[in-house]
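As the work plan foresaw, the team has encoded backbone shapes as discrete tokens. One protein thus recorded appears below exactly as we store it.

:::
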Amino acid sequence: RIHRFDTLQDALLDVRNRNSDVAVGDLPAFADMIRKGYPELEIVPGGPFVEENLGIVARSDARDLLAAINI
């Protein structure tokens, strides 16, 4: 299921609260937001959107999900 959010912060909060598994958005913005207030989230390295400069964010404890995305 895909959720749409008005802000990146809303998307990160949804992942933090376990209502979404991942969030996809602007990589530099995600990196800054995670550094400032979401230490339990991490940016998934690589991924299918590298050329678009997008990042995928998931909870650090979601190892199976992180492994599946890190192809």
Observations:
- Helices lie at 8-16, 27-37, 63-69.
